[in-house]
Design brief:
mainly alpha
Length: about 70
């Protein structure tokens, strides 16, 4: 895991939207999506529930925020 993974996770969690997280991070939306998918794969848990253009933290994602 890299610090970048955590920065992307926090931005997406705050914005509840990968596109707005990408704008905040000055990267593309596909870059955010890829990094977060990689993070989920590495951790072996789903952090976000994808609902169209909106994303919502799963219970596991919420627990990660509390750490």
């Amino acid at each position: 895991m890299e610090l970048r993974h955590l920065r992307y996770f926090i931005a997406a969690a705050e914005q509840q939207h990968f596109g707005r997280a990408a704008e905040k991070l000055h990267v593309t939306r596909p870059a955010v999506s890829k990094i977060l998918a990689d993070l989920e794969n590495e951790l072996g848990i789903l952090l976000f529930e994808r609902q169209g253009h909106r994303v919502i933290l799963t219970r596991a994602g919420t627990n990660c925020c509390r750490m």
